[in-house]
């Protein structure tokens, strides 16, 4: 248990200004962007790896839970301290330690915000591709711990693809380094990959070597309407197997189209069964050729194809996609968009089937469900809005979300393609992973025998 | 210990034709393509996952070592049974279980040979990119267990990038499934990534879900000479940071150029300080543009640039690269190319420095060292030839290799970029990984408490 002596001891490590046990402060650290809540007993803002190590060593000795937090933009309760204890707010460790473009990499601290990193890289002609919806706020540490991705992962992969190495504080306070500045190594188990996506349950990331890419010179977007999501799904499979890899491939269903048109009638999206948005980036020739090939591939399937002729039109089309979250939330002032059951992924060819199932679930529970998402990698976001003061509405929502999760698993998919397990989805771990969950638990027990790191998450 | 009763019991599982304890047979399984040797007591050729599980369960009960083997093309002793026991020859489990191109994936058994898989994929327009020198023989299971790569990894990544999921038999015989047919999932620790590159020390791969890519429509090669490896290194950094990602980027040093010209004078390679070979693939426009940009980028640095004008010339240039192994081995009939210290990797910008160091080591030990490799990802292969009957020569070679390994680590590199640790490089694990090796050992002990899986490898 945390007592005054321990708090004083920790205060000596980080300085009195960098920790707080005041209720108003603790309350700020009791949630993320989901509805999950849990109060910490102490919030600490470490500034160095050695401070993190010293704090964790004390926590380990006394069996105090340690939950690590970046910007708190997660949607699964991942950084919510369910069992109290310490929250480590990593936002103070936000430096770019090294810009090493000759090696196509940068070394960063975990608290740096995605957009800030990209702004710092831009003058040098480089970028860090993973771009979740929260990129203006989310931290690199959070992205790594959750293996975040977003719209560009169909071409550029998830955060995992960019992590060359990590500095990690283990449960007993030991500092290790995984990976290296080398682009390719097969020395040892990939501890880097084990840490990526482990949501703070195996160690605390205090530094990362991140691969960067040259900013593509051009990009263009294309916008194709289809009579049904099934036909849109077919078009996606055809495009991806043609060898063209778009930098984004998004779907909007009929409900989302209506929502966007209600939100901003000027956009005037065609009232199709589904719309696909493709973005192609690269050199001028690549973009021209890519867009041309997608148009050709969609012909005969799509009822209407529009290519953005200039930057203005491109921005307008893309703005429509970015509006989705807002459009859903503003459909009905009495209802709030709730992120539950919102992140399933399925094998690409199962997308039309999953979309049909979501529609059935929507009708069964008499709950409007709007679907959009990264169809290029099978990731569907289902948007549901409820009156948050109604117990009845919550019950219905949870039942619908449960059915969405079980359906995704049944057809070979996953309950979370990018938002994380946290505590929101830990109950589905056994169903999706089977006895592989036991292997996870064995690893967790071996590396964190006292279970102090982010307890209550990921089903371990 | 293996006794007659146990052998009989195992015989009932796999059938008498699929196991052998005959010395001549055991001898065939006592080596890989390195100089490392170790005799097994029993060789078993399982045909199903359940057979593997049943065998491992017996081995676990009796504490018998189990070493898994694909085609035995490894260069680190990885599949050599150093502590006797059982060798599991997986070459009988070689089916393509499912071709699922709508999901851009195939499901395979581990014994399938890389080239055979690619021949089966070709008519459908797909391929599996990782292509080590041994692709005509090596198995997918071996590639996965070693995270194999080769010339194309600069663009296409290593085997890791293609493994969506695995079926694995754990040390106690339990069968687990990791990953899924979904392109993107963040459910749980990435056990798939933990298994990839674990060289059979954590589990036995019995099935894999493999992502495939569309075969690029065109490819072209370019061949640039430089006065020194340093300048060649600069050109590589410039090309990679320009946004063009070649599908191969290889270096040949002056010694290798001479070796190839001696082997096949018709090729007439220019006697430069170093030659870079670039391959660009993609659509016609991409290839044309890529080659053009590389030419432009190399101008002012390269003393001579040749672009292959047609397929014949392209094949000739590429053949020169493929000749390297043979050229080294045939320089002197009294000497044999030995694969020791042959696989270091360094951060890209350190390549010129590493090349200089190798040159110094060559002069210090009076041992000709020829260097070539995948400069695009910092992977250098150092070729040394010795009189294998001379103890003196072996001593010199091992001392030189030791210095090469230590130098690579000193400048932020790795002792093995793609060939694996096995037993050949396990002594360097502590030096390269520091206390991260303890984390590896903790995981190994947790998942294989009796240490029966491929003992004596990877320093665990």
UniProtKB/TrEMBL annotation, chains A, B:
Similarity field: Belongs to the FAD-binding oxidoreductase/transferase type 4 family.
GO-annotated molecular function: FAD binding; oxidoreductase activity
Protein species of origin: Methanomethylovorans hollandica (strain DSM 15978 / NBRC 107637 / DMS1)
Protein name stated in the entry: FAD/FMN-dependent dehydrogenase
Keyword rRNA-binding attributed: no
Cofactor or coenzyme needed: FAD
Superkingdom assignment: Archaea
Domain FAD-binding PCMH-type residue range list: 36-215
Ligase in keyword set: no
Keywords, ordered alphabetically: FAD, Flavoprotein, Oxidoreductase
Coiled-coil ranges (or none): none
Pfam families according to UniProt: FAD-oxidase_C, FAD_binding_4
């Amino acid at each position: 248990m945390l007592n005054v002596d321990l708090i004083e001891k920790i205060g000596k490590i980080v300085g009195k200004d960098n920790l707080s046990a005041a209720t108003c402060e603790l309350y700020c650290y009791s949630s993320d962007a989901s509805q999950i809540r849990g109060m910490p007993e102490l919030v600490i803002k470490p500034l160095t790896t050695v401070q993190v190590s010293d704090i964790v060593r004390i926590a380990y000795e006394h069996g105090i839970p340690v939950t690590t937090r970046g910007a708190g933009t997660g949607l699964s309760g991942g950084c919510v301290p369910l069992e109290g204890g310490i929250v480590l707010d990593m936002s103070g460790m936000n430096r770019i330690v090294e810009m090493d473009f000759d090696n196509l990499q940068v070394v960063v601290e975990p608290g740096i915000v995605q957009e800030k990193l990209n702004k710092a890289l831009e003058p040098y002609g480089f970028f860090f591709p993973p771009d979740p919806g929260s990129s203006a706020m989310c931290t690199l540490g959070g992205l790594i711990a959750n293996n975040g991705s977003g719209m560009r992962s169909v071409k550029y992969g998830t955060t995992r693809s960019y992590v060359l190495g990590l500095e990690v504080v283990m449960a007993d306070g030991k500092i290790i380094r995984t990976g290296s500045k080398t682009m390719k190594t097969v020395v040892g188990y990939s501890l880097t990959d084990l840490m990526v996506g482990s949501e703070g349950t195996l160690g605390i990331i205090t530094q990362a070597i991140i691969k960067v890419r040259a900013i593509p010179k051009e990009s263009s977007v294309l916008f194709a309407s289809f009579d049904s999501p099934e036909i849109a799904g077919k078009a996606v499979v055809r495009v991806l197997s043609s060898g063209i890899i778009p930098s984004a491939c998004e779907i909007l269903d009929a409900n989302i189209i209506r929502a966007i048109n209600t939100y901003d009638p000027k956009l005037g999206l065609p009232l199709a069964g589904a719309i696909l948005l493709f973005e192609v980036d690269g050199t001028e020739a690549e973009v021209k050729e890519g867009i041309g090939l997608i148009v050709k591939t969609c012909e005969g399937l799509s009822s209407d194809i529009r290519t953005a002729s200039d930057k203005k039109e491109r921005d307008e089309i893309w703005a429509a996609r970015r509006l989705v979250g807002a459009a859903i939330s503003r459909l009905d002032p009495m209802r709030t968009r709730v992120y539950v059951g919102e992140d399933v992924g399925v094998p690409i060819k199962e997308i039309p089937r999953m979309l049909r199932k979501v529609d059935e679930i929507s009708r069964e529970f008499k709950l409007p469900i709007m679907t959009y998402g990264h169809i290029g990698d099978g990731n569907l976001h289902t948007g549901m809005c409820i009156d948050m003061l109604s117990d009845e509405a919550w019950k219905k929502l949870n039942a619908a979300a449960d059915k969405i999760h079980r359906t995704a698993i049944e057809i070979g998919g996953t309950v979370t393609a990018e938002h994380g397990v946290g505590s929101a989805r830990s109950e589905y771990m056994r169903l999706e992973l089977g006895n592989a969950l036991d292997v996870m638990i064995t690893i967790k027990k071996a590396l964190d025998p006292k279970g102090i790191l982010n307890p209550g998450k990921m089903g371990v």
